[in-house]
Amino acid sequence: MTLEQELSEAMGEHVADVRASSLMGTKIRRRHRGRRVRVRTAGAALVTVAVAGAVPSYLALTEGPRATVAGPAGTDSEARAGIAPPVEVPRAIKMTVAEARAVLEAAGLTASVEGETGEAGLVVEQTPHIGESVPRGSTVRLVAIDPARPAPSSTTDGPEERMTMPQDLGDLGDGRAFGGVRFGYLPDGLEWGKWSGKNGFGTTSYTTTWQRPGLPEGEYDVQAVVYRDGAVAQLKKRMKGYERQGAEPITIDGRTAYLVRAGEAASQLDENGTLTLVWTENRDVAVEVMMSPGYAGEFGDRAGTEMRKIAEGVEPTR
């Protein structure tokens, strides 16, 4: 194994268990009552646009609505009590790390940066998200990448912008076949999100999403991750962790699986977390399916049944 491969796998192991907060949907629902959650991503994920003319997914999926730097003004009673008023998280997406730090500090926040990019790195993800109200002094987690990888073919935000990255995720013609498996069943009304990601959850892993028409950009109803080769061991380790935390295994077509509620750190169970089903398809392939809290809520007690149907419909393509 080359040094480059070792570094790549080390990076994958470091970020594979990081997800966009599953509780983010709760925060969004309190404000908008949309009962949805954004796509889970991991630091250093290589996200590709699978349709020409689309806005780069690695930016569109995490950017969210624009917000001003200044937070809301405090009340007189807060001032008299010496309580610092909350602030709105400013936009750091598409900025360099140095620029993002300055903007956050100006808003009374601090930055925690993931990604070995230095101050010139490009910020592609931030948590809490743009416009969220947080206490002054809070830390905003930034994920940065080398601006040379991946590189947009244009510097505009227009519909012509596309990624210049390889499309090696398999047959994504209808968004159901990728990473060596095909998803034969999805709940009625879902359509492919027209994006795909590689190596965001370990080397080698692939991900994409499906949602109902009209869902806001960057949100999903069902997300799937296919783990192959070295990434399979990472998911198996997580499955053992679920068992140690008291999760009961289930059987799907003779395969051992875990249907759980996963927290912000996907390895930790959380009764308010994202409905997640994980299983090993064979020795070299494992699969994870996630259903957003809002979408699962619409199914109610049938959400687990739908997740099982998705798993039962998965078939290898190679």
From TrEMBL:
<dbReference type="Pfam" id="PF03793">
    <property type="entry name" value="PASTA"/>
</dbReference>
<keyword id="KW-0472">Membrane</keyword>
<feature type="transmembrane region" description="Helical">
    <location>
        <begin position="37"/>
        <end position="59"/>
    </location>
</feature>
<feature type="domain" description="PASTA">
    <location>
        <begin position="83"/>
        <end position="146"/>
    </location>
</feature>
<dbReference type="InterPro" id="IPR005543">
    <property type="entry name" value="PASTA_dom"/>
</dbReference>
<keyword id="KW-1133">Transmembrane helix</keyword>
<protein>
    <recommendedName>
        <fullName>PASTA domain-containing protein</fullName>
    </recommendedName>
</protein>
<keyword id="KW-0812">Transmembrane</keyword>
